[in-house]
Amino acid sequence: MTKTSHSNTLTGWREWVALPDLGVDWIKAKIDTGARTSSLHAFDIQEFDREGESWVRFRLKPWQDSQEDTVVVETPVHDRRAVRSSSGHAQERLVVMLLIRLVDREVLAEVTLSNRDEMGFRMLIGREALRRGYAVDPARSFLGGRAPREARRRNRGRD
C-alpha cells in the first residue's frame, strides 16, 4: 500500500466544488477516476499573449442550463495536451492550473478547458487531483455539502 503525506478525504461520485480564485462558489462536478486530468466547461476560449507569455481568456457558466452568473476568466496557459474524449476522439486542449475546493480541502490541479454543454456535469475531477489524498465512495454523493437551496433553484433543482 502506498503511503500519502496526509489522510484520505472521502468524496462521493459527484460533489459541489468551488473554484475560489475564479469567484465560483458552486459548480457541480463528477468525480471521474477514469480521467487522468480534470476538465472544466469553457466557451469563447481565446488564447492571447501577455508580456511574452501565453494566456487564455474564456467564459464559464457554473450552472447547467442557466445564463446566470457567467464568469470571464483570464489565466496563464500551463500546457497543451492531446486528450481523448469519452467518445474516443482526440483533440488538443489548453491546460490551466486551478485551485479546487473539494470536500473542505483545496488542491491545485491541472484542468483542461472544453465545451461541456452536452455533458451532465460542468466539471470533471480526475485522478491527478484525487491522488492528493482523496478516496472515492461510488455509492455516495455530495459529502462536502450542497449548494444553498436558492442557488440550486437557479440550477433547476438538478442536484
TrEMBL record:
<protein>
    <recommendedName>
        <fullName>Retropepsin-like aspartic endopeptidase domain-containing protein</fullName>
    </recommendedName>
</protein>
<dbReference type="Pfam" id="PF05618">
    <property type="entry name" value="Zn_protease"/>
</dbReference>
<feature type="domain" description="Retropepsin-like aspartic endopeptidase">
    <location>
        <begin position="11"/>
        <end position="143"/>
    </location>
</feature>
<dbReference type="InterPro" id="IPR008503">
    <property type="entry name" value="Asp_endopeptidase"/>
</dbReference>
<dbReference type="InterPro" id="IPR021109">
    <property type="entry name" value="Peptidase_aspartic_dom_sf"/>
</dbReference>
